[in-house]
């Protein structure tokens, strides 16, 4: 098990990137590091900004370990959590829920615990299927495409 604890300062997100890189090196899954990193950065940013209200006296804890078929990462903050059910649907535009949308899309399984103050992201890294990778790319492109179309 690997663990990282950072203070709730957005500038500490670089530590999350380093943590993901080190974990991916440990398990020799560097080809999946970008997907994991993007998901974890969203989770950590949500924990800092929304969970801990950017209060630098509070911390965010990230734990990683092996799970069936791959790796999991859990991100916990010291906040009161949130109503996880409200974010079960993919958001229709910009605004709240975009980070959760990305975490849900880029991970193989996402769940909330501790009343929403912990998110667990699981990644199948034993050999992602090409069709699943393509599906993720298409979903992300379609999500962002309407924002960049010139009228």
Characterization of the model:
There is one protein chain. With 151 residues, this protein is of the alpha+beta class. The chain has helices spanning 13-26, 33-51, 98-106, 130-144; strands spanning 2-7, 59-67, 70-76, 109-113, 118-124. The chain has a 5-stranded antiparallel sheet with strand order 1-2-3-5-4, covered by helices on one side. Strand 4 (109-113) and strand 5 (118-124) form a beta hairpin. It is globular. The relative contact order is 0.16. The model has no long low-confidence stretch (mean pLDDT 86).
The average pLDDT is 86
Look at the structure and give the CATH class.
Answer: Alpha Beta
Note the total helix count.
Answer: 4
**H-E order:** EHHEEHEEH
How would you classify the helix and strand content by structural class? alpha+beta
Main attributes?
alpha+beta, single chain, 5 strands, Heat Shock Protein 90, 151 residues, five-stranded antiparallel beta sheet
Blueprint of the fold:
Blueprint: E1 2-7, H1 13-26, H2 33-51, E2 59-67, E3 70-76, H3 98-106, E4 109-113, E5 118-124, H4 130-144
Antiparallel strand pairs: 1-2, 2-3, 3-5, 4-5
Give a short summary of the structure.
By secondary structure, this protein is of the alpha+beta class. It is built from four helices and five strands.
């Amino acid at each position: 098990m690997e663990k990282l604890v950072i203070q709730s300062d957005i500038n500490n997100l670089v530590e999350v990137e380093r943590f993901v890189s080190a974990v991916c090196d440990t398990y020799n899954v560097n080809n999946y590091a970008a997907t994991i990193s993007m998901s974890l950065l969203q989770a950590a940013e949500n924990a800092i900004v929304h969970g801990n209200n950017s209060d630098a006296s509070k911390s965010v804890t990230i734990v990683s370990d092996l799970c069936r078929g791959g790796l999991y990462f859990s991100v916990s903050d010291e906040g009161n959590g949130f109503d996880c059910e409200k974010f079960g649907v993919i958001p229709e535009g910009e605004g709240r829920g975009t980070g959760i949308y990305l975490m849900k899309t880029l991970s193989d399984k996402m769940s909330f615990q501790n009343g929403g103050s912990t998110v667990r992201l699981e990644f199948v890294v034993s050999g992602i299927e090409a069709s699943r990778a393509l599906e993720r790319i298409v979903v992300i492109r379609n999500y962002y495409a309407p924002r960049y179309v010139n009228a």
